[in-house]
Structures are given as C-alpha cells and as structure tokens.
Design brief:
alpha+beta; Beta-Lactamase; Alpha-Beta Plaits; 3 domains; 8-stranded mixed β-barrel; 24 helices; Nucleotide_cyclase
Length: 789
C-alpha cells in the first residue's frame, strides 16, 4: 500500500515538475511578449521625466520674463513724454536682461512711440490690431504671446507689459521681443535633453506652431494639422501615446500642457530605437521555447498515460454533476491519493445534495417562523387560481396583520417582536393543512382553495382568530395580541393574484378601523375616498417603519427682548409616491384612527430630543422645544416610562422639553392626568395648554394642574385688530395667564398690526408666519441668526 501510494506520489510529483517547466516556458513567452510594453513603460518614464524637467525650466525662464515685466511696471521712464528718456530706458532694459532683441513702446491707441533696434521708419506705425497689444490692453496684465513674425520677418515671441500713470490714467504698452530662431533662453534648455540617439523634444504654442526645436529650421512651422499629439496639447491635454512625425517615423511621445502660457511640451523617441535591444533576444527565446516544448511534451505523454484513467473517471463524474446528477457514487478501491480524492468527491456530492435541499427550503420559507414566504405564496396562488378557474370554483385570499405589533417592538425591543412572530407561526402551524404564509413583518396570508361562497371562509377565519385567545409570554410577561383579517374572493374581487392581495389588504385596514380583532370582506361598493384613506394609512405605516417622516421647527419669540425663546416641533410627511407634502390635518386623524399615533409620537419625541441635544452640544443657546401630545398618548400607561427612557437615552435634560396638551385631555380622568403631569414636572418638563379658549375652558383646572404656559389659539388672533370680541378674549387670556404666573404665547401671528396689538397687551411671546414659518432643522440656524421680531 505504501509502495503504491509512493509510486503515485512520484508520478504526480514528476507531472507537477513538467507542468512547472511548462509554466516557466509560458512565463518566458509571456515575458517575451510583455517586453515591448516594459520597454514602452521604461521609455515613458524617461520622456515623462524629460517633459517635467523641461516644464520646470520653461517655468523658470517665464518667471524671469515676468520679473522683468514687474521691473518695467515700476519704471516711471516708460511713462515719460521725452523720447530720449524712453529710448534710454528700453535700451538699458534690453542690454541688461539678456533675453530680448528689440523693444517697442506703444501708447494706449497702439501707436509706436519708441522702437529700439527695430526697423527705422519715418512713417507712423500703429499696432493696435496685434494680439500682443490687444491682450495686454484687455487683461491689464503682462501677456506672453505665441510665436509670430516681427516687422523684419524674424520669428519671435512678445512680452507685452502694460504700464499705468496713476495721475492722469494714461497707459503705455512696453513690448519686448524674444528671438526664437537663435540660441535664446528657450532654445538653450534643450542642451541638457538626452533621450536616446533619435529622441528629441520641442515646444509648441497655442496655435500649434513650433516655438523651440533642436532643429532651428523647424521653428515657426505649424504642425497642428499633421500631428495628433500637438492637437491634444492645444486642447489642453497631457499624456503619452504613439505618433508618426513629419518624416513618417513612428515614435512614442510624452506631452503636457502649460496653462500659464497656453503652450505645450513634447518629448518623443523613435519606436525602432525602443525595441532595438530586444531583437536578438527574441531569436534565442524562440529556439529555447521550441526545444523545451518538445521535450516536456514527451515527458507529459509518458507519465499522463499511467495516471489519466482514474482522473478521467473523476472527470466524467464531475461532468455528470454539472448536468444536475447528484446521485452519483464512485467506487473507492484505490488506496492512493486518488482514492482519497474519490472518497472526498463522494462526501462532497452528499453535502451538495443536502445543501441544495436546504437552500431550496430557505428560498421558499420564512427563516424566522418557518412558514412559506411571499415567493411560495405567489406560486401557490397562481396555481390555485388556475385550478379554481378550470373547475368553476371560487377561492379566497386572507390578509392578516397583528394589531399594535409595533408597540411590542417599541416597549420590549425587536428581539421580543421576533419571538412573538415565532410564537404566532407555531400557532398557525397547528391549523395545517391551511395554505398559510408570512409576507414580512407582522403580515401573513392564507389561501382557501375551491370554495362555493363567502360562508365557507368564516369557519377558517374563526379558527385563525381563536389562536389569539390565549396570551403570549414574552420576557416573562403576558401579552394579549389580536389580529385583523381582510378577505377577498376570486373571481368576484379580482381575477389575478395581485388584485386579490391588494383588495384583501384594503379590507384588512378596514377591519383595523373597527379597533382590530375583527375581519372584513372586500366590498366593491367602497368609494374612492375610502380606498384613498386606506391607501394613505398603509403608506403612513410604511413611512413610520422606513423613518421617512420629517420634523420642522417653528421659533417662538419673546416680544420684549426680540430674542428666540424656544421652538415648536411640528410633524411633516413627504409622500415620495406623489412627490408632495401630506397636510397634517389629513394624516394625523388617520394616525389616531389606526392606532399609529402612539408609535409616531414616540418617534417624534426621540428625534426631537436627539436634535435638541445636538444643538446644545453645538453651542446653540439653551432653548426649549415643545412637542404636541395626543389624548391617546396620555391614555397609555407606559407613556411616562417612555418619556423617562428617551430622556435617559438621548442625555437631554427635561428642562429643555415642553409638552403641549389640549384642554380635552385635562377633562378626562383628572386624577390620572394630575399624577402624570406631576411626574413630568419632577423630570423638569414644562406643561403648556394648546389652543386655549377653544375647548371646555375651566378656571378650576388651571388652579389644579401644574400649568406653565397658555397658548392663545390662532382663531382669536386672525381678526384681533378688527373684531372687538376676539380682542377682548385675547386680552382676558393674557391677563388670566399673568395672574396665574403662567407664560402666554399667541399662535398664528401673520401681520405687523397683530404683533403691535399683542405687544401693547403685554403678551409674552408669539409664533407665526410673520415671524418665521416652520423650517427643517438645517435651516433653523439661519432663523436663530436673524432674530426676527
């Protein structure tokens, strides 16, 4: 056994050696074919470095030119009216700089005043149409031109320097000419360029004309039309690529754009020179490769003949697996490494079989409850509807939603919510063989096939609801959970799965309007307003789940000081489906009817406290934010604990928080309300009566309850300046609040006259659109800075 194992080992080992040699040969070939690219890379580094070096040298030269220009601008002689003085000044400048061959002094109209070393003429010369004059006049700064021909036919560039007389506003243009076709400042920088025997570099201007070139005869040539690299440089690009020069020679060129001058630099090397060093090596590589291939092919044929047979057997088995055959089993007679491989193959196939079954199960079942999921629901529903249609039968789709499920999540956490869903799934499984599915969250569906009428569904519905008669135990506590069920019938309420599911969903929300724990059949007679209301309720629920609600802040201003004293948090909802804001008067009642108001209220309180803590830590003044509470929140016996928990989690002190409640809240269960308000006061929270004067106002509760603020309803403020009754009521409320040592705030202030009236009546604070509308948190900082009053 050891001998066989050892023999196979050495066979495989030698085969590996052969493969390694073959790979080595392959790498040699690969290296051979990559040598040109390596050479290009190496050449590019040389040409790129050359371009960078030339760019720096050109920059140094142009910096010197700009320094000379700065000197010119400081010389008052160029503004002299004495021609001898101006001539002497420009002569000294040209002789001392070493850059320039000639110079001109032009007046602001372009007339030549002085020409030094230029062509002498008695005629008046005007150069107002020359770019080097017009650009200097337009930009009022030093301008270095592209290459041009001067009046004597010499190829030059012109440094145009505007000189100003601040006393009389007169302007002169000093033009200094640099001759390019001799060993000037730009031509001399090429003396250090060494990029191979046939390589060279040159400079082009923005028009594609050669400014400087090792071959002086090329200076002034326009190569824009025939040279792609020059075209790219004039388009302000930089890079490296293959080109063909004017003599038809293929070259690789690096090029870059000089933004300050609108020029370009090109450095290029002939392609033939790049590859010359690899031509001889090419022949040797070919000979070695052919000999190695023949020899290694012989060794491979000898050793493969003895080992190919079992490998072939494994290959055929793998091919069968790729065709979907997972029932294979190979004999394990061989005790060598191939035998071990065969055993591992058999184990792998068994594992794959089990994994496929598991994956298939997971694809069609909910991982939390084990119930069939939405994918299997749609597949089963389609087949059941087809069968019902063929047999002229009806079918029913039930949409189930747990009532107040999110209160479990909010009070006990998501783990408790998941545990509740698992327990619900277990109770549903007891109703087998029902077609029951979990769509997601707390939503479940049931398909009842082949029924004759609605009455056939009622028994199933009652069985489902009976599963919620007993409480659920979560974290050592018992919870009673109910379910709302919506029902649609095929084909009465829809002929396809999507419409049936949608109508069952609509019916479920109708059942929730009955305070849950009920069922409802879909009715076609429901008008569009009802369906729209149900649809809006569904979208509101999803907006809460997806954190899509918004909070705006409206500032409150102290009239006496003109400073912001606080703000009111106002809930907003942007409906992404319609692209519009939903008015609060539409969705707040829906939230109260559907039981979502408690969850929404907790969401608002947590976000507001988090935002306030962020503002305080950001250095904002210590303001107080007010939050509106609904009557349902006050009826929740866990609400006080929720407020305490949120303040602890966010780290916000209660003194920065104010609750706005209506008079209607105070009139219900006064003893409980009094205890809740006292608890809030112990936390430091302020209490405000919202819309004061519009409810069943009673002076007794103002004395009984710990009220800090009275808010005058905007209905009294609207006509306060022209309605004596409103004016009297407002004045009385202000006086009443002050007598009770309470702050009074007027809502809905929209005009300056209203503000003046309230100031005269000594109202403490105001809020309204005249001061500022509600704004998002990121805009509130701007309101703070304005201090509007």
């Amino acid at each position: 056994m050891k001998r066989k194992k050892s023999g196979l080992f050495w066979k495989v080992y030698l085969i590996h050696i052969v493969i390694m040699v073959l790979l080595l040969s392959t790498l040699m070939f690969t290296a051979y074919y990559s040598l040109p690219e390596m050479s290009r890379v190496k050449n590019r580094s040389i040409t790129d470095e050359t371009v960078v070096r030339l760019k720096q040298q050109i920059t140094n030269v142009t910096n010197n030119l700009y320094q000379v220009a700065a000197l010119v601008q400081r010389k008052e002689e160029f503004l002299s009216n004495d021609s001898d003085v101006m001539t002497e000044a420009i002569r000294d400048l040209i002789l001392s700089s070493g850059f320039f061959d000639q110079g001109l002094i032009l007046d602001q109209n372009g007339d030549v005043l002085i020409s030094y070393k230029g062509e002498a003429t008695d005629e008046k010369v005007n150069l107002a149409n020359q770019p080097y004059f017009t650009e200097a006049v337009r930009t009022k700064t030093t301008y270095i031109s592209n290459i041009i021909e001067d009046l004597n036919g010499k190829r030059v560039i012109v440094v145009s320097v505007p000189v100003f007389n601040l006393k009389n506003g007169e302007e002169r243009i000093v033009c200094l000419f640099v001759q390019m076709d001799k060993n000037g400042p730009f031509q001399s920088i090429f003396q250090s360029v060494n990029i191979g025997g046939g390589g060279y570099a040159y400079i082009v201007d923005g028009n594609g004309r050669i400014l400087s070139h090792p071959d002086i005869s090329r200076i002034g040539d326009n190569v824009l039309a025939v040279n792609r690299v020059v075209q790219k440089v004039t388009q302000r690009e930089s890079g490296y690529e293959k080109v063909v020069n004017s003599k038809g020679v293929s070259m690789y060129a690096s090029y870059t754009y000089l933004p300050r001058l609108d020029w370009g630099i090109v450095a290029q090397v002939p392609e033939q020179e790049i590859y010359a060093s690899f031509r001889d090596f090419q022949k040797s590589v070919w000979v070695m490769a052919v000999l190695s291939f023949l020899f290694l092919s012989f060794l491979t044929a000898v050793f493969t003949k003895q080992t190919l047979r079992p490998i072939r057997r494994l290959y055929e088995a793998v091919e069968a697996v790729t065709q979907g055959n997972y029932e294979l089993y190979l004999e394990e007679k061989d005790q060598t490494e191939l035998g071990q491989l065969t055993r591992r193959f058999n184990q792998m196939i068994a594992t794959i079989r089990d994994s496929r079954k598991q994956i298939e199960y997971q694809a069609y079942h909910d991982s939390l409850t084990g119930l069939p999921n939405r994918t299997l629901f749609k597949d089963h529903l389609e087949r059941i509807l087809q069968t019902a249609n063929l047999r002229q039968k009806k079918a029913a789709v039930l949409f189930l939603d747990l009532d107040r499920f999110y209160e479990v999540n909010d009070s006990l956490g998501h783990q408790a919510g998941d545990q509740l869903l698992v327990e619900v799934g277990k109770r549903f499984n007891e109703l087998s063989p029902l077609f029951l599915y979990r769509l997601g969250g707390d939503e479940f569906t049931v398909i009842i096939p082949e029924i004759d009428s609605k009455e056939d569904v009622v028994g199933t519905v009652e069985n489902l609801m009976s599963k919620f008669a007993e409480p659920f135990e979560l974290k050592g506590r018992e919870f009673f959970v109910t379910v709302s069920i919506g029902i649609s019938i095929f084909p009465d309420d829809g002929e396809d799965g999507n419409s049936l599911l949608q109508h069952a969903d609509t019916a479920m929300y109708k059942a929730k309007e009955q305070m849950g724990n009920s069922h409802c059949f879909f009715e076609k007679e429901w008008n569009s307003n009802t369906e729209s209301k149900l649809s809006l309720t569904r979208k509101l629920r999803r907006a809460l789940e997806n954190d899509e609600l918004l909070i705006y802040y409206q500032p409150k201003f102290q009239i006496a000081s003109g400073q912001i004293s606080g703000m009111e948090a106002l809930l907003r909802w942007y409906d992404r489906d319609t692209g519009m804001m939903v008015p609060p008067k539409e969705f707040i009642p829906l939230a109260e009817e559907s039981g979502l108001i408690s969850s929404i209220g907790e969401w608002v309180l947590k976000h507001v406290c988090t935002q306030m803590k962020h503002w305080l830590e950001g250095g904002y003044p210590p303001l107080r934010v007010s939050v509106n509470l609904s009557p349902q929140q006050f009826q929740d016996d866990k609400f006080v604990d929720t407020v305490r928990r949120i303040l602890q989690e966010t780290g916000l002190s209660g003194e920065y928080l104010e609750f706005e409640i209506t008079e209607r809240v105070l009139m219900k269960n006064e003893e409980t309300v009094h205890q809740v308000l006292r608890t809030f006061k112990e936390m430091g929270v302020f209490i405000s009566i919202d819309d004061f004067g519009t409810g069943y106002s009673s002076l007794s509760y103002l004395k009984q309850f710990p009220i800090d603020v009275l808010k005058i309803d905007q209905s009294f403020i609207n006509n306060i300046t022209n309605d004596p009754d409103n004016a009297s009521i407002t004045s009385a409320i202000i006086q009443l609040a002050h007598n009770l040592n309470a702050e009074v705030i007027a809502e809905g202030v929209e005009t300056e006259e209203q503000l003046h009236f309230l100031r005269d009546k000594q109202c403490d604070a105001v809020q309204g659109y005249f001061i500022s509308p509600p704004v998002p948190p990121h805009d509130f900082a701007g309101v703070l800075k304005q201090h509007l009053v």
